[in-house]
Each structure stands twice: as C-alpha cells, then as structure tokens.
Write a structure and sequence with these properties.
The protein has helices at residues 58-68, 85-99, 107-111, 124-136, 150-163, 180-190, 209-219, 233-241, 259-268, 282-293, 326-330, 335-340, and strands spanning 3-20, 23-36, 42-47, 71-72, 113-120, 140-144, 169-173, 195-199, 224-226, 247-250, 273-275, 302-305, 323-325. With 342 residues, it is of the alpha/beta class. The chain folds into two domains: 3-99, 2-Layer Sandwich (Enolase-like, domain 1); 107-332, Enolase-like C-terminal domain (TIM Barrel, Alpha-Beta Barrel), CATH 3.20.20.120. 45% of the residues are buried.
C-alpha cells in the first residue's frame, strides 16, 4: 500500500565556510522526505544534491516531489527518472525504513564503533588544527588541496606531515583541481610521505579523465581515490568493470537507488570503500552510517569528521570524535529536524 508522503525544503548556513577547489561553500540546501504507512511506521530520507557530482539540482528535486502528490509506494520508485539520483536515493531510504524495524541496542551491535577521519581546513589553517585533533585521538586526517597556490600547498604538505602524530595518515582531496602534470607532481611528492591516498586528482569532466586516472593509479605507489567520479550506480559498475585498483570514496546520498552497485562493491572491493559525508543533515547521515556499520569490511576511517557543521546544531549528525559509535546513530532524533522546518 502507498504511504503518506510529505517533504520539506531546507537551506542551512554552515558554522564556517567550507573551502574546496570548487570555491567557497557557505550553506547547504536540500529536502527532507517523510513516509508514513497505515501502521504508523515512519520512514525518513534526504535529498542532498551536489550538481558538481552530476546530480539533479534542489529546485528540480523539489518540483519532482511536488508532482508525486500525497502518497508514494515502492512500485513507483522505478518511475523516478534516473537523472534524479538524490531523490531516488532519499525515497529508497525512506521506503526501506518502513520495512526495517530498529534493531535492539544489545550486545556487540550496541558497542560497535568505527574510526573517523578529521577534516582539516584548507591552507595553513589546517596545520594549526592537527595538534588539537591529534590530542583528541584522531589518527587519520583529510586536507583539501588545489585551493591555493600549488607551490605553497606543496611546502605546507611537508609541514603537515611533520606535525602528524606517530602512525597517523593524511588524505589529500583535490576535488578534481589538477591537470595531469600537476597530479604527477603531487603523486611524486607523496610517494615517501604518510599519505593514505590522493582523492580525485583529475576532474571527471576533463578530457579522457578515466584514462588519465587509470594511468596515474598504475604509475604511482600512492593510492588514488575516486569521489566526484562516482555518481549513480552505473558509475560504480563502470569503474569496477575497468579494473579500478584504487579507493572508492562513496557518498551514499549520491548513488541513487543502486542495489546492484552496492552488491558489486561488497563483492569486489569491500576493503577499498571509504564511506563519506556529502555534508548532509542528520537524516542523510544516519542512513549512510547505517550502511557503513553494516559493511562487510569497514576498516578505513569514515569521512564523517565534519560536525559541528551547521549554525543550527539540531541538524548535525553525531559529534565528530576519533570514533563513531553505533549507539550514537540510533540516538539521533530526526523528528526534531522535521519539526524545526515546519
């Protein structure tokens, strides 16, 4: 039976602007979805588009939601156009919640935890953050590059590596800012440094981007991670078919309803998957983190060290410590977010 459907739009300013190679990001826009069946069960989903990743825009998603009317059923999901990746993902998540009762907080499941990577500010500000975050217990750090002058960032790389605590690893996220020559320069520099991987050195829109990324992955010892190149389940299947040897940084909110892609990832590259935030609210974060905790081989630090993120802290996910506990995810009260948007 179709469930009652409602959605609410949000626009939330960040506590501090997020600087990436794409520019300065000051707020997040998206939609919260709510389904309620005849038994009173509620399913929640989030539409958190990132058009730089090839998703639909917020306005288009809101218009599509308005056309759905007051009810929605599982049989209607295949009729949502494939281009609406985030809407398909949010609706699939909400439908799944209707049929999946919350597991009891007992035994090992309640006590499960996973490591988290600390997100550093771009530029020299990131260097000042390493000490306090290391004292808090973080041992994996993520630094945005391709933001400032390349020569300055390369010098800062050595400073950051020197400031890392013993045994710590650094992730570099270029957000597709480099051309081949710049990427090669960075990968050469990273070869003998504690860099876990370099994320998306080449933009997916670049000419022959797939060939360039595969070539770089085969030529240098530092692993390369795909991020912006993963948009929709078909992209995952394509990269697995191409024999991608590196890391898959997966933002579940951007994959759409893609059970086949998830199954392939779990079978062929489970230990090379990093679950990462799309800077969504607690609604989307909760569903993404549930996937992470159920993943067959989640040993790499989660890319969810982003909170506190919003000026209105009610929309944040669990506090960003060096470890994220399953119990903290269960305690998220997403009804509070829905009420706040009324």
């Amino acid at each position: 039976m179709p469930a009652r459907f409602a959605f609410r739009r949000y626009r939330l300013p960040f506590r501090a602007p997020v600087r990436t190679a794409h520019g300065l990001w000051t707020e997040r826009e998206g939609l919260i979805l709510r389904l309620e069946n005849e038994a009173g069960a509620i399913g929640w989903g989030e539409v958190a588009p990132l058009q730089g990743f090839g998703t639909e825009g917020v306005e288009a998603a809101a218009e599509a939601c308005a056309r759905l009317g007051d009810t929605f059923g599982a049989e209607e999901l295949p009729r949502i156009p494939p281009a609406f990746l985030c809407l398909r993902s949010g609706l699939a998540t909400a439908l799944a919640e209707l049929d999946r009762p919350e597991e009891p907080e007992t035994g090992a499941a309640r006590d499960a935890y996973l490591p988290v990577a600390a997100l550093l500010a771009a530029g020299r500000l990131g260097l000042a953050q390493i000490g306090p975050k290391a004292e808090a217990g973080f041992r994996t750090f993520k630094w945005k590059v391709g933001v400032g002058d390349a020569a300055d960032e390369l010098i800062l790389l050595d400073d950051l590596c020197a400031a890392l605590p013993a045994g710590a690893r650094l992730r570099l996220d270029a957000n597709g800012a480099w051309d081949r020559r710049r990427a090669e320069l960075w990968l050469e520099r990273c070869a003998d440094r504690p860099v876990e991987f370099v994320e998306q050195p080449i933009a997916p829109s670049a000419r022959r981007a797939d060939d360039l990324l595969l070539g770089l992955a085969g030529d240098y010892p530092t692993p390369i991670a795909l991020d912006e190149s993963l948009s929709g389940g078909e992209s995952v299947e394509r990269w697995l078919g191409a024999g991608w040897p590196g890391i898959f940084v997966v933002k579940p909110a951007l994959l759409g309803a893609a059970p086949a892609a998830w199954a392939l990832l779990a079978k062929a590259a489970a230990d090379r998957v990093v679950f990462s935030s799309a800077l969504e609210t607690a609604v989307g974060a909760r569903s993404a983190l549930r996937l992470a905790f159920g993943w067959p081989a989640t040993s790499r630090a989660l890319g969810f060290g982003v909170w506190p993120l919003f000026v209105d802290g009610r929309f944040d996910g669990p506090a960003a410590g060096p470890f994220l506990y399953a119990e903290s995810i269960r305690r998220l009260n997403v009804e509070v977010l829905w009420t706040a948007l009324s």
